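Q: Structure tokens for this one, please.
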Amino acid sequence: MRDPDASSATDPRIARLIALAVGALHPPPGIGRIALALATGAVCHTLFAAAVLAMIAAMFFGMSESLGRVPWPWALLANAALLAQFPLAHSLLLTGKGARVLARLVPGPHGETLATTSYAIVASAQLLALFALWTPSGVVWWRAEGVVYGAVLAAYGASWLLLMKASFDAGAEVQSGALGWMSLAAHRRPVFPGMPTQGLFAHVRQPIYVAFALTLWTVPVWTPDQLILASAYTAYCLLAPRRKERRFAARYGAAFEAYRARVPYALPGLRRAP
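A: Here is the predicted structure, written as tokens:
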């Protein structure tokens, strides 16, 4: 029996990516425009990959291995600043004023087209700073060993795979920053995906935030650093999507209200009371 959620050329998520890639691979003339698109794309995806690798590695060791070397007690302030800078800027850049800032980050006429790429660059740089520059406390409470280590490692890997799946369901071109620079290369306006309802979004409304929260709590090493990170960012994962849902309600109206009534917020099977 065929899986209705299987990847195929008819899947709109796949079709969008193919159309975007084809347009970028066969761009209309414009050396300056194409060079700018390729340069911003290279910066975006290099930072994106570095940030993801830094996150996976740092949390794997419970934030006990990092490049930060701020002397204590000043390290408390430095770590607090690193912890706060991502959610604050992440939320501000999603406002109307933030969108105008993103449109001006790249000077010239293409800043608005590159806004999603600029957003991914900023977010990746912030995450890279957090996980690469954290100053470890040096205290390790617990390390998984033996069979427990294998089980925890499997859960950690599954959480990251879940996060990748959720990002794909939401629109990989937006989540990765590819939409902006590929649209610029193809010399077309960025076409955003509609309200996500497929894949993991058919089960919970916020699978990206749920999956990220799972990565925070399935690590094989526990330290005070990891507990602070996991607690703070889990709270953010529960609260931040409320603002996102207000934007969706304003943009999609009755369609989003019907979706919200049908699909739970974060836990499958847990729906709002009528």
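A few notes: Strands lie at 142-143, 221-222. The chain has a mean pLDDT of 91.
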